[in-house]
Design goal:
It contains 6 helices and 8 strands. It is globular and about 50 Å long. The two termini are 27 Å apart. Bound molecules: 5-O-phosphono-beta-D-ribofuranosylamine (GRF). 5-O-phosphono-beta-D-ribofuranosylamine binds next to α1 and α6. Pfam families: Formyl_trans_N. This is Phosphoribosylglycinamide formyltransferase.
Length: 196
């Protein structure tokens, strides 16, 4: 399976995915790392690993999401992608784009969905006094952060946690969960991954 990975920033999840796909016999290979920010630091890291990259600045498209997504779709298709992994990609994708990749697009979200869809998930978990938190990999559907769950990883909330300390603990698990889910998904195995 040829995988296009979409990022917006540092791309730590993207790097974890690239590293995992170097394993011999892995059912997936990276064909593109693209970002809505041409300056995303993750693009240089991907290029350094020999992975084709593309920066498509969304800002010149203004409110015309469809035009931005049409161009993004063309770039992804031109690299022969079979599927997409969203990894720290911070643009909401319209139903039009999502439906073109139905069943072939994954996302990682830093909460135990269905809790805390959207942003600021770590602060919200702390405010709620949750004893545990975590991350979820799901298939992307038109509804934000809502598709079928393919895996989750749990972490304890520790006394004195701040959003940053909790986010760091979750991120460590993201880097384990996403590669594990991608390996199964690319092999056609739909059994969910539960960590630890
Ligand atoms: C992480 O919080 C991740 O949960 C979310 O985007 C943030 C940055 O991820 N998807 P990355 O380091 O750019 O992969």
């Amino acid at each position: 399976k040829r995988v296009a990975i979409l990022i917006s920033g540092g791309g730590s999840n993207m790097l974890a995915l690239l590293d995992s796909m170097e394993d011999a016999g892995h059912p997936a290979e990276p064909c593109l790392v693209a970002s809505n920010d041409p300056e995303a630091p993750g693009l240089a890291k991907a290029a350094a690993r020999g992975v084709p990259t593309a920066g498509l600045d969304h800002r010149p498209f203004g409110k015309d999401r469809a035009a931005f997504e049409a161009e993004l779709h063309k770039i992804i298709e031109s690299h022969g992608a079979d599927m997409i992994c969203l990894a720290g990609f911070m643009r909401v994708l319209t139903a039009g784009f999502v439906s073109g990749w139905s069943g072939r697009m994954l996302n990682i979200h830093p909460s135990l969905l269905p809790k805390y869809r959207g942003l600021h998930t770590h602060a919200r978990a702390l405010e709620a006094g949750d004893a545990e938190h975590g991350c979820t990999v799901h298939e992307v559907t038109p509804e934000l952060d809502d598709g079928p769950i393919l895996g989750q990883a749990r972490v304890p909330v520790e006394p004195g946690d701040t959003p940053d300390t909790l986010a760091a603990r979750v991120l460590t698990m993201e880097h384990k969960l996403y590669p594990a889910v991608l390996r199964r998904f690319a092999a056609g195995d739909r059994r969910p991954v539960w960590l630890p």
